[in-house]
């Protein structure tokens, strides 16, 4: 276990989907800051294996599918037993399938809502109970501009992300008196595996409609998450921060 000066145990961050994309960068940066990090994804990869080797007990990865909300709750409870506390939860992992609403299979809609809305709520509940004991904690939910602007082919994803934003405001009211801050980060398009399938003509359209003229980088999104998670944001709760190069302005 990594200890901060003064023998205080290192703070613990739970990051869903820490194997790739934004979750990977957050995991790397939180570990480098001296936090312990617990994360999950469906599959391990070179990053999770190398990080487990490098950081030992300060890093925990497990195979969990977001659509299995019982497994998600079990993961968070296990983190509580392993590390004794949780200081930060980043509800990062998300699942996007672009498909027209009229032809989307009912099972697919259920999975999208389970992965993008129910799983984050279950994680938040278990983690908030652990944070409550310390009277301190922060939750950052990762939404999407699909929650605030209409795009074709993403109805269930958009509904789930909008639900997450609403839940964030309600939770900020309920958990604030317990010392827990809850905020939402709403990114526009940024480069990751999720956007790797965007065609070059759609990419050009996005760039054209974005005042800053480009997609975001994963590090720029991580900067905003780490700000909301930091003491510099200690009087910010119940807010939604849109980080999209201006595409929704
Ligand atoms: N990229 C964008 O342009 C963009 C824009 C707006 C919002 N967002 C949001 O930003 C967040 C991060 O996106 P990203 O682009 O970094 O995603 P990404 O590169 O696709 O990475 C997703 C991470 O979540 C894990 N994951 C995916 N499906 C999972 C499942 N069913 N169960 C458990 N883990 C799962 C992945 O690992 P496995 O595949 O091994 O499970 C991976 O670690 C998401 O909430 C996304 O909705 C992204």
UniProtKB/TrEMBL annotation:
UniProt xrefs under InterPro entries: KR_dom (IPR057326), NAD(P)-bd_dom_sf (IPR036291), SDR (IPR050259), SDR_fam (IPR002347)
Pfam families linked to this entry: adh_short_C2
Domain Ketoreductase: 11-188
Keyword annotations: Oxidoreductase
PANTHER family tied to this protein: 3-OXOACYL-(ACYL-CARRIER-PROTEIN) REDUCTASE (PTHR42879), 3-OXOACYL-[ACYL-CARRIER-PROTEIN] REDUCTASE FABG (PTHR42879:SF2)
Family under the similarity heading: Belongs to the short-chain dehydrogenases/reductases (SDR) family.
Protein name according to UniProt: Beta-ketoacyl-ACP reductase
Annotated source species: Streptomyces cinereoruber
Lineage: Bacteria, Bacillati, Actinomycetota, Actinomycetes, Kitasatosporales
Protein encoded by which gene: fabG
């Amino acid at each position: 276990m990594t200890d901060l000066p003064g023998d205080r145990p290192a703070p613990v961050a739970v990051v869903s989907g820490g194997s790739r994309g934004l979750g990977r960068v957050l995991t790397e940066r939180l570990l480098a800051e001296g936090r312990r990090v617990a994360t999950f994804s469906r599959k391990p990869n070179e990053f999770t294996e190398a990080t487990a080797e490098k950081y030992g007990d300060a890093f925990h990865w497990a195979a969990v599918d977001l659509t299995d909300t019982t497994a998600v709750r079990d993961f968070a409870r296990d983190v509580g037993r392993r590390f004794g506390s949780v200081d930060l939860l980043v509800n990062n992992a998300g699942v996007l399938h672009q498909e027209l609403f009229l032809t989307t299979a009912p099972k697919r809609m259920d999975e999208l809502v389970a992965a993008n809305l129910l799983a984050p709520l279950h994680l938040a509940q278990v983690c908030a109970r652990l944070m409550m004991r310390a009277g301190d904690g922060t939750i950052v939910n990762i939404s999407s501009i699909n929650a605030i602007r209409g795009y074709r082919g993403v109805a269930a994803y958009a509904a789930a992300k909008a639900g997450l934003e609403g839940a964030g405001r309600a939770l900020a009211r309920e958990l604030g008196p317990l010392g827990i801050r809850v905020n939402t980060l709403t990114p526009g398009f940024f480069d990751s595996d999720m956007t790797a399938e965007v065609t070059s003509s759609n990419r050009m359209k996005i760039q054209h409609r974005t005042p800053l003229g480009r997609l975001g980088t994963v590090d720029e999104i991580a900067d905003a998450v780490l700000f909301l998670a930091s003491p510099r944001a200690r009087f910010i709760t119940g807010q939604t921060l849109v980080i999209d190069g201006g595409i929704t302005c």
